[in-house]
């Protein structure tokens, strides 16, 4: 993982954005069971279920928060722990990327198709 190689903050965020681009179009499931896909356009992430986009800055803020919560608690209990707009959509994507863990392995497997 990039963090283990001593990557700087900017490099980590760039790797995150590249990873998000790679997963575009996949189907994910929120904690409440809603399916969605997303598309990256420029510095924004457009969720199929929303009219508003999630900015790259919000994604990066949620990413940092996910890393902090994961380190402190060993898992991210739910999207509210990320504390940003779009967290209910970002959490399943972060779990799929291996950035953090959700409630249980069984529930995590149901979050990505």
Number of strands: 5
Our count of domains comes out at: 1
Tally of individual helices: 4
Calculate the terminal CA-CA distance, rounded to whole Å: 23 Å
Mean model confidence by pLDDT: 87
Largest sheet: 3 strands, antiparallel
Radius of gyration: 13 Å
Strand order across the largest sheet: 3-4-5
Summarize the structure.
The chain has helices spanning 9-22, 56-73, 87-97, 105-109; strands spanning 28-29, 35-36, 38-41, 44-47, 53-55. The chain has 113 residues and is of the alpha+beta class.
Question: Mind explaining what this structure looks like?
Answer:
This protein is α+β, with helices and mostly antiparallel strands. It has one domain (27-109). Helix content is 42%, strand content 13%. It contains four helices and five strands, in the order αβββββααα. The protein has helices at 9-22, 56-73, 87-97, 105-109; strands at residues 28-29, 35-36, 38-41, 44-47, 53-55. Helix 2 crosses helix 3. The protein starts with 8 loop residues before the first helix and ends with a helix.
List keywords for this structure.
single chain; 113 residues; alpha+beta; 3-stranded antiparallel sheet; two-stranded antiparallel sheet; 4 helices; 5 strands; 42% helix; 13% strand; disordered N terminus
């Amino acid at each position: 993982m990039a963090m283990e190689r001593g990557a700087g903050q900017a490099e980590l965020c760039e790797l995150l954005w590249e990873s998000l681009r790679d997963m575009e179009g996949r189907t994910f499931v929120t904690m409440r069971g809603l399916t969605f896909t997303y598309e990256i356009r420029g510095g924004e992430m457009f969720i199929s279920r929303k009219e508003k986009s999630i900015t790259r800055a919000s994604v990066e803020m949620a990413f940092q928060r996910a890393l902090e919560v994961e380190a402190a608690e060993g898992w991210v209990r739910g999207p509210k722990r990320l504390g940003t707009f779009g967290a209910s959509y970002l959490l399943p994507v972060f779990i799929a990327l291996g950035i953090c863990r959700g409630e249980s392995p069984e529930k995590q497997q149901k979050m990505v198709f």
